[in-house]
């Protein structure tokens, strides 16, 4: 079914956000003298950015499922996401158990957004999206690409995750990204949920 118009979530701002994030990377280095947000020149900006993109895509997932029999919780699909993450993690030299923990968080963050949006759209049908993207052909392939990116960022941030400055650096990355991507409050909460296990 295709309705007239879709209020697209701010996923399309990603290009602009990337410019800001590159700028923030330089600025963080200058402000902290490389001590607080970095460990060996590594930051969490890229990981936080792609996690925020995943959270923003949850708006599209919610739109794809709203008014259809497709459930928000899809355990079979979740298992595919987790199995893929574990297998690719092993290939990339990332601890598969860590990858599974992180992707469980990412999945919970997505469902948090989906549940809140479905509740909002049910209560206020005039706010429901006008268009329904296709989950299988449009939305899940984007999530699959992000899986690979997240795993590579997990690999690249290994020294920072093991460092005592991990949480501080994670919050720096979180703040830069939520501002650069202009996340709404729901997405801010979800991004925090998505990143919960990074330093634990
Ligand atoms: C995103 C979806 O919704 C839920 C969240 C998932 C995820 O974040 O990867 C996977 C399955 C669903 O439980 C989806 O169905 O694809």
Automatic annotation (TrEMBL):
PROSITE patterns: CHORISMATE_MUT_2
Domain of life where this protein originates: Bacteria
Gene3D superfamilies per the UniProt record, alphabetical: Chorismate mutase
Keyword Mitochondrion recorded: no
InterPro entries linked: Chorismate_II_sf (IPR036263), Chorismate_mutase-related (IPR051331), Chorismate_mutase_periplasmic (IPR008240), CM_dom_sf (IPR036979), CM_II_prokaryot (IPR002701)
Keyword Hydrolase carried by entry: no
GO biological process, one term: salicylic acid biosynthetic process
Enzyme class: isomerase
A Pfam family matched in the record: CM_2
A GO MF term: chorismate mutase activity
Alphabetical keyword list: Isomerase, Signal
Pathway connected to this protein: Metabolic intermediate biosynthesis; prephenate biosynthesis; prephenate from chorismate: step 1/1
Coiled-coil blocks: none
EC number: 5.4.99.5
Domain Chorismate mutase: residue ranges: 25-118
Record-linked NCBIfam families: CM_mono2, PRK09269.1
Protein name: chorismate mutase
Organism encoding this protein: Actinokineospora iranica
